[in-house]
Amino acid sequence: MPLARSLSVTSLSGLEEWDEEFELEDAVLFEIAWEVANKVGGIYTVIQTKARLTAEEWGENYFLVGPYVESNVRTQVELIEPTNPVLKRTIDKMNSSGCKFAAQSEEPPHIVAHFHEWLAGLGLVLCRKRQLPVATIFTTHATLLGRYLCAGSVDFYNNLSKFNVDKEAGDRQIYHRYCLERAAAHCAHVFTTVSQITAIEAEHLLKRKPDIVTPNGLNVKKFSAMHEFQNLHAQSKSRIQEFVRGHFYGHLDFNLDKCLFLFIAGRYEFSNKGADIFLEALARLNYLLRVNHSDVTVIAFFIMPARTNNFNVETLKGQAVRKQLWDTAHTVKERFGKKLYESLLVGQLPDVAKMLDKEDFTIMKRAIFATQRQSQPPICTHNMLDDSSDPILNSVRRIGLFNSSADRVKIIFHPEFLSSTSPLLPMDYEEFVRGCHLGVFPSYYEPWGYTPAECTVMGIPSISTNLSGFGCFMEEHIADPSAYGIYILDRRYKGVDESCNQLTSFLFQFCKQSRRQRIIQRNRTERLSDLLDWRYLGRYYIAARHMALAKAFPDTFIYEPHEPSSATGFRYPRPASVPPSPSLSRHSSPHHSEAEEDEDERYDEDLEAEKDRVNIRQPYTATKNKTSANLGADENEDDAVANDKN
Asked: Other CB atoms closer than 10 Å to residue 611's CB: what's the count?
């Protein structure tokens, strides 16, 4: 179901320079959302990471409007007096009426109000009903009805055009909210969504085609030291390994150096987030690793908050046993070191047989006996309130992955958001992601997908789907995504079983990679971070605001977007060190490390990185009268980006 586009909505080189210069000195931008300084989901990340770039563009004429939550104000908001006298009068007037947030201004001639999601949509509808001189933008990050339909195990994408939207909303008792969302979409001067897949959904469910797609970006952190993110990966991985040592005490019969950490994280939407297909793929992966006698062990983390009453006692005991063993080892080490020191002081070589006495052996034996365990390592780190009906635990029971010694795939369900103050796994989310090897997000309903995007900017490969905004975006802009550690699972044109087999294949091929191959892949993944930087993706929000100003104030502002000359836009080329033909390579990463001496497989990291930097940045520095050429012409050219002058 292709969506006709009047503007290149996801092609980085398709958004051409506008002819009219917009003077923003007499304009004010209000951005309204329920998640301003109020973390609920991904919209909070959108607004928080985009705020600095928007403030640079609008200066003191940029205002964020959200709910006044006292606990959030104390930790996230700096209270200052507004310098704008008009705004100060407005806020004082609203405060005197008992309202602690401002949503309108009175005098500036050109106001842009950008509303996010149906929760803020009422203000947009009232602005248009009262005919206020405000340019309005409405962004839906996920349609309300779409989320409910997908949660109900409906064949959503194949029946988009067939839904009786009013009946479906009424049956789910969300008709009032659906009407508000639909009214906001139709009343807005400019309607936007976050991805092409959501644009198709909105056109059918909200009955309006989006004017422009505004992909979500991130503030990409660049490190001054070369490959610093690799060092951070090693440091965080070692902290996860410490947790694993405690969690699997008494059953630590696998090599941690050959252990891969996989994870899935997000809201606990079992089917929408793809936890169901991930668990099934893990069961099939376990079978493949066992029949192929692989020495690789996979530990899959499920970081999804659910209802719990406390930590699991057995899990806490594991960390206590690990710490006790560590303390015992240090005690014996100090005693050993003292005897060695005294022996060397008198000029004698130590008698190894006398270095450890009976007391040392007694201490060590007690520590070993303390690690004895009759039960299997627990699946869940917490006590679940609804253990018998929990979908993840029920699926684990069905597939039979109980962390037994024979299994090559282990599962750890952490039903709580990660925190550096946790007594169990004291790591924040960013540290944890950096320590993992692969993020797995086989979502069925994912309008954008910040979790794989965060993996990318931290140099961690990830699996996404062609039903997620992130997956579609990367698939469009990268010629060979898997070569850069971005695996795109087909969940739109394949059945569940076929998709599960494809996911299993991705996981099994990843397990077969050598350590050198994973390092090279992480280097490539991290270089894609420029694609997701707000410095680039923020231009779509700029275009939406200019479009809204031109529609609301046609006598003052003019905006005429041009049809892109190339439908395909910019595509990130294959890495130079990977053969372009699939027949020359079994998969997208270099051959096994034993073949390093092969002249045809030499890998020059600095050279490849420099080519990637040129390839990714050239479209953004193109002048007004240039457009990017199609990249599919010649795979053998090193510089795969060309510009054609009009």
From this structure: 18
pLDDT of the residue at 628: 34
Provide the pairing of β-strand 62-65 with 438-440.
unpaired
Domain's final residue, options 530, 549, 581: 530
Closest CA to 268 of 430, 365, 380: 380
331 lies in the same domain as 301: no
Domain boundary among 488, 510, 530: 530
- Residues of the domain holding 334: 318-375
pLDDT score for 365? 87
216-220 average pLDDT score? 89
Both 429 and 328 in a single domain? Answer: no
| pLDDT, position 226 | 47
Instruction: Choose the weakest-confidence range: 297-301, 495-499, 609-613.
Output: 609-613
Calpha distance 187→175 (Å, rounded): 18
Give yes or no for residue 100 having a pLDDT over 80.
no
* pLDDT range class, residue 207, cuts 50, 70, 90: very high
Domain for residue 636, yes or no?
no
Neighbours of 86 (CB within 10 A): 13
Confidence of residue 564 (pLDDT cuts 50, 70, 90): very low
Residues 328 and 191 in one domain: no
**Based on the domain organization, do 405 and 279 belong to the same domain?**
yes
How confident is the model at residue 3, as a pLDDT? 33
d(CA 147, CA 201): 11
The C-alpha atoms of residue 89 and residue 100 are separated, in whole angstroms, by 13
Tell me phi and psi for residue 156, to 5 degrees.
-70, -60
CB burial readout 120-156, b (16+ within 10 A) else e: bbebbbebbeeeeebbbbbbbbbbbbbebbbbeeeeb
Asked whether residue 269 is domain-assigned, the answer is yes
Residue 600 within any structural domain of the chain:
no
Domain count, the chain: 3
Between 92 and 285, residue with greater pLDDT: 285
- Can you give the C-alpha Rg of the chain in angstroms? 28
Global pTM? 0.81
Q: What is the DSSP string of 429-493?
A: HHHHHHH-SEEE---SSBSS-HHHHHHHHTT--EEEETTBHHHHHHHHHBSSGGGGTEEEE--SS
> What is the DSSP track for 64-112?
EE----HHHHHHH------S-HHHHHHHHHHHHTT--S----SS-SEEE
For residue 338, what are its two tokens? 């003292």
Residues in the chain: 646
Across the chain, what does the average pLDDT equal? 82
Higher pLDDT, residue 26 or 276: 276
CB atoms within 10 A of CB 452: 26
